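Batch job 17 of 40 flagged for manual review because the log was empty.
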Amino acid sequence: MTQDMKAGKGSIESRPYFELIGLHADTGVPAGHSLLRLNSRSDLQNSRGSMHGGVIASMLDAAVNVAVHSLLQNGEGVATLSLTINYLLPGNGPLIAKGNVVRFGRTVSSAEAKVEDSSGRAVAHAIATVRVIIPRS
């Protein structure tokens, strides 16, 4: 992760929404990759007792953004332009999201992510286009 993320700026935990759902990012992940964890809670589940699809989408979105963010210079940010998700299985129990950058560009990057359950089965997969936000001087 970047120095900003290590310092808490730009980290998953510093985002109120991600704090609300309990999403946590592992540190020490190589640049261009991400590893996020989320424990199941009843208030995050759908009517069938599985993790709500919107929560899984949030995990995928966060995973691609953290992966791209890890390659940025200080002060730069990211915004998702598109996110295409394939849901494969119900998400039960603790979930892990893994993201990686497919192509890094100075203004637009491509990344992918997957969410797995605790036994390593793929719950969902996503591809994303992410805009790199360069601060104006």
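Reviewer: the log was empty due to a logging misconfiguration, but the result itself is present. The two ends are 24 Å apart (CA to CA). Unflagging and moving on to job 18.
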